[in-house]
Amino acid sequence: MSTAGKVIKCKAAIVFEAKGPFKIVEIEVAPPKAHEVRIKILASGICRTDDHAQDGEIKVSYPVIAGHEAIGIVESIGEGVTCVKPGDKVIPLCVPQCGRCPPCKNPEGNMCEKSDFLPAKGLMYDGTSRFSHKGKIVHNFFSTSTFTEYTVVHEDAVVKVDPAAPIEKAVLIGCGFSTGYGAATKTAKVRPGSTCAVFGLGGVGLSVVIGCKTSGASRIIGIDINKAKFPTAKELGATECISPLDFKKPINEVLHDMTDGKGVDYSFEVIGHTDTMAAALASCNKNYGVSVMVGAPPSAADMTISPTLIFTGRTWKGSLFGGLKTKDDIPNLVLGVIEKKFNLDPLVTHVLPFEKINEGFELLHKGQSIRTVLKM
Ligand code: CND
Ligand code: ZN
Ligand code: ZN
Questions:
Q1: Kind and range of the H or E run holding 71
Q2: DSSP string covering 321-356
Q3: Mutate to test the pocket of ligand 1, among 44, 46, 49, 232 (most ligand atoms within 8 A of CB)
Q4: Which residue among 50, 201, 271 has the greatest number of ligand 1 atoms within 8 angstroms of its CB, and so is best to mutate?
Q5: CATH match for 189-318 among 2.60.120.10, 2.30.29.30, 3.10.350.10, 3.40.50.720
Q6: Structure pTM?
Q7: Is 223 in the pocket of ligand 1 (CB under 6 A)?
Q8: Which of 153, 132, 131 is closest to 143 using CA atoms?
Q9: Domain 8-19+40-45+62-159+167-176+323-375 belongs to what topology?
Q10: What residue segments make up the domains of the chain, in order of their start?
Q11: Which of 113, 117, 137, 350 is least enclosed by beta carbons within 10 angstroms?
């Protein structure tokens, strides 16, 4: 029996307050309004950004349904939707692409003005939510909300992908892989023969490693305090891996020593700490080095750096979703997975049923997983 036009009751993981657990409860998901799409989520990956939504490091509105890296099937569409139809395999977009605003029109831009972060309101364009629990509204997260069996997104925040997309791998195209791969290939534009340093070897950092290798970097130095990440980093293309805990010197000095005093050509901070952002910046060549901030800074953080670090010529860039344009680039990245251009197998260390979401976050906290994929 068709569910189109009806309220759907289903399971979702709600965080009711900052630092509270993910509670699986029954919610009501209203039908999509005009230009909205209701999606049955098939799988959702656990990204550190969801952890930041739960612990309050990133400002969100509670109660909230987090999750922003997913793949699903269109259940129904609202009036006027033409980009997808029921039954299509889709990826929800945590960075929408409306196609009309200045960042969408600028070839170098991608932070669509319809994006919902910094600060996140957690509501649809009309200021309401399609989610409710016991009659009270529940907010959405980063235009997506994927820790639920059904979600509703605006048509700007969904893209059709090839039906052959393998869900347990292609799910990572919704955030982690695209963010890391794009940071290397689009934001930094890593050149063949260069030396790269990647700070943080989680799902996103390892995807930076893949991007550096694809770009032809000849040295890729992985940096992490958790040495359990090193074998996977090497499998994916890191030529050396080091832990800052093994050195008395600051890690930026170690990287200068490793490169005959030159510093690396490109550095990437993929952790989200201000001290490692500063270290990554100082690690690259003082004149032509490029440092890319990929890790999400805590909402409340400030940092101070010496202006000399930039004055001598360094470039310091941020990278949101790898600088990629979601609607344009995601279908091609999914094809890359189908055609085995990218091997994402080593990134997916755990596949768990949705109900075990808290276990998935525990694995992340203990440093025992790279990506956990929850299957609905
Ligand atoms: P995950 O937690 O899996 O990886 C972080 C890695 O950093 C872990 O392996 C840690 O052991 C390591 N680490 C922690 N502290 C240090 C340290 N002091 N020195 C060296 N290594 C350390 O996280 P993830 O890969 O899912 O995400 C990484 C960051 O990227 C995180 O901040 C997340 O919020 C952010 C992000 C950004 C974007 C974007 O669009 N820019 C999209 N998604 C995620
Ligand atoms: Zn993410
Ligand atoms: Zn836009």
A1: strand 70-77
A2: GGG--HHHHHHHHHHHHHTTSS--GGGEEEEEEGGG
A3: 49
A4: 271
A5: 3.40.50.720
A6: 0.96
A7: yes
A8: 153
A9: Quinone Oxidoreductase; Chain A, domain 1 (3.90.180)
A10: 8-19+40-45+62-159+167-176+323-375, 189-318
A11: 113
What is the distance between the alpha carbons of residues 290 and 286, in angstroms, rounded to a whole number?
9
pLDDT tens for the chain, 376 residues long, are 789 999 999 999 999 999 999 999 999 999 999 999 999 999 999 999 999 999 988 889 999 999 999 999 999 999 999 999 999 999 999 999 999 999 999 999 999 999 998 778 999 999 999 999 999 999 999 999 999 999 999 999 999 999 999 999 999 999 999 999 999 999 999 999 999 999 999 999 999 999 999 999 999 999 999 999 999 999 999 999 999 999 999 999 999 999 999 999 999 999 999 999 999 999 999 999 999 999 998 777 899 999 999 999 999 999 999 999 999 999 999 999 999 999 999 999 999 999 999 999 999 999 999 999 999 9
User: CA nearest 37: which of 79, 68, 98, 7?
Assistant: 79
